[in-house]
Amino acid sequence: MTLQSITIRRPDDWHVHLRDGEMLERVAPHTARQFARAIVMPNLVPPVTSVEAASAYRDRILSAASGYDFTPLMTCYLTDSIDPDELARGHAEGVWVAAKLYPAGATTNSASGVTDIRNIYPALERMQEIGMVFCIHGEVTDTDIDVFDREAVFIDRILTPLTREFPALKMVLEHITTRQAAEFVASAPDNIAATITPQHLHLNRNALFQGGLRPHAYCLPVVKREEHRLAVRKAAVSGSPKFFLGTDTAPHAREAKESDCGCAGIFNAPYALESYVQVFDEEGALDNFEGFASEHGPRFYGLPLNDGAVTLERAEVQVPETVDGLVPFHSSQQLNWKFVD
Ligand code: NCD
Ligand code: ZN
């Protein structure tokens, strides 16, 4: 018999961009409605590099999500000059649960990012010691490397040596997009995991050009060939505790996406669970959905599982063209599952 509904322990989102100011007010409720906790990325302008900035940002998020039972988990933006003592202090004070590597120039607001991985070796040494999670935007930035190859090259040149140098550091390869990433993480030791977005489960690179240029399918790392989408799907639904939910919801104003130099990022928060559960359903893997959405992440981060539950029902849902003035993932399309508030 086909399952008509699925109830799982309350899930978390292990990778979100909530922005700041008016945009934060607009987007935070969408994440807080579906998820109990979220790892909040620090790529604001200016980036979140001090404990005080992170703690003030957390307060602004709590206020934007007031009315929801929602806990933002904060991250530190790693720069060439990051002070290991500041990292350790923020971690000890319970402000930072992780720190994020943006290779300089790799993506949105990464200009203050790391120019050479060796510059943060002292920080990584300290994080390994104190058990602080290292979140990785895994792409090289060399302009001579094809943009579709930058994740695979990062794994060879940066990540593989890094895992030898810091064998006990907990690392999350964020938003994986390739067969190489899925295979690397699956065969790595237990301290290495990955997040997976809905768009990398649904789209291959043809989506960028379907009937014309499609800015709302553009994110970084960019969507890849079908072969890679299938490998990432297989990893997500496999039941392996190394793979967990991280939407990488990354809202930008419509004009900023529909531009001659459009921003990278997909706003997938409003229908995130519906989008993911559809993939698990299509793969005949609904039994593994709760692990991916609600269990593997907290276990990796060493945090308690959430109490409470959420339900999704098999029902057609029409995604509107815009949500709060922003174009959401699956805009104007139909999904087969409905999130029950
Ligand atoms: C993110 C953003 O807009 O902040 N964009 C994206 O395409 N994913 C940055 C990031 O996670 O790379
Ligand atoms: Zn991101």
UniProtKB/TrEMBL annotation:
GO terms for molecular function: dihydroorotase activity. Keywords: Hydrolase, Metal-binding, Pyrimidine biosynthesis, Zinc. Its cofactor is Zn(2+). Pathway: Pyrimidine metabolism; UMP biosynthesis via de novo pathway; (S)-dihydroorotate from bicarbonate: step 3/3. Substrate binds at residues 17-19, 43, 137, 220, 252, 264. Zn(2+) 2 binds at residues 100, 137, 175. Catalyzes the reversible cyclization of carbamoyl aspartate to dihydroorotate. Residues 13-308 form the Amidohydrolase-related domain. Its EC number is 3.5.2.3. HAMAP family: PyrC_classII (MF_00219). Pfam families: Amidohydro_1. The active site is at residue 248. The modification N6-carboxylysine is found at residue 100. The lineage of its organism: Bacteria, Pseudomonadati, Pseudomonadota, Alphaproteobacteria, Sphingomonadales. Binds 2 Zn(2+) ions per subunit. This is Dihydroorotase. Homodimer. Zn(2+) 1 binds at residues 15, 17, 100, 248. Belongs to the metallo-dependent hydrolases superfamily. DHOase family. Class II DHOase subfamily. Signal peptide: none annotated. InterPro entries: Amidohydro-rel (IPR006680), DHOdimr (IPR004721), Dihydroorotase_CS (IPR002195), Metal_Hydrolase (IPR032466). It catalyses: (S)-dihydroorotate + H2O = N-carbamoyl-L-aspartate + H(+). The keyword Phosphoprotein does not apply.
